[in-house]
Recover the amino acids of this structure.
């Protein structure tokens, strides 16, 4: 890893094994930002279809917990999983399946506020803890040209709600209230607290792993 000057860091001496149950490079990079380097990356493959009438918060918490349960590991290991959704009223906007759906999502989100919720689950054996964080985000209404250019950029692919705040879409977002890292896929302050509660403290001792 690169060790930023004056950095904080390292949980690598921790005797507990940490498995990140996620295929998201953003989650791995966010954890690295606070010096947490999972021993293994083991993505979970689950059915992400919402249940009939399922509310956004219930859905995202269920997803994070199901991902954690789907990963086989012995009781000595900690498993961290997460799920991020965009919610507009009671509508759940997950990862768009194609460009047309991404465009529909962006038209819906433009000119109003929506919520981005990430649920994180930490599992050790049968013990499961799930925490969720919500950020309020305002997106401006996109012109036809902005919309078509954004769709062409393909940055919407694999992103809940069809946009990535950490990329071009930052030009469309004049306001957020709450955690920024939560929108990108993992709320770091709460992730550090959750890990510490499971005896996996993120230590800020100036060493660099
Ligand atoms: C809203 C938003 C979401 N996202 C991403 C975070 C998540 O990776 C993704 C939502 O999909 P998720 O299903 O939460 O995660 P994933 O499929 O990428 O990875 P895994 O299930 O294996 O953990 O959207 C951004 O990167 N930026 C944003 O601004």
């Amino acid at each position: 890893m690169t060790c930023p000057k004056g950095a904080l860091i390292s949980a690598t001496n921790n005797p507990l094994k940490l498995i990140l149950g996620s295929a998201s490079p953003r989650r791995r990079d966010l954890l690295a930002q606070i010096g947490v380097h999972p021993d293994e990356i083991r993505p979970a493959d689950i059915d992400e279809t919402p249940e009939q009438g399922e509310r956004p918060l219930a859905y995202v918490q269920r997803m994070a917990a199901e991902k954690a349960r789907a990963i086989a590991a012995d009781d000595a290991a900690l498993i961290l999983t997460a799920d991020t959704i965009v919610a507009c009223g009671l509508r759940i906007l997950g990862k768009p399946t194609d460009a047309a759906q991404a465009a529909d999502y962006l038209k819906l989100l433009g000119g109003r506020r929506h919520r981005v919720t990430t649920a994180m689950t930490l599992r050790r054996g049968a013990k499961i803890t799930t925490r969720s964080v919500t950020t309020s985000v305002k997106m401006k209404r996109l012109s036809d040209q902005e919309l078509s250019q954004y769709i062409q950029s393909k940055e919407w692919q694999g992103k809940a709600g069809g946009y990535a705040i950490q990329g071009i879409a930052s030009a469309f977002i004049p306001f957020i209230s709450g955690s920024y890292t939560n929108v990108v896929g993992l709320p770091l302050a709460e992730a550090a607290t959750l890990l510490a509660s499971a005896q996996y403290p993120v230590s800020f001792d100036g060493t660099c792993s």
Remarks:
- Residues 22-24, 26-27, 43, 82-84, 86, 95, 116, 158-161, 163-166, 183-185 surround thymidine-5'-triphosphate (CB under 6 Å).
- Confidence is low (pLDDT under 50) at residues 1-11.
- The chain is about 30% helix and 25% strand.
- Residues 56-70 form the longest helix (15 residues).
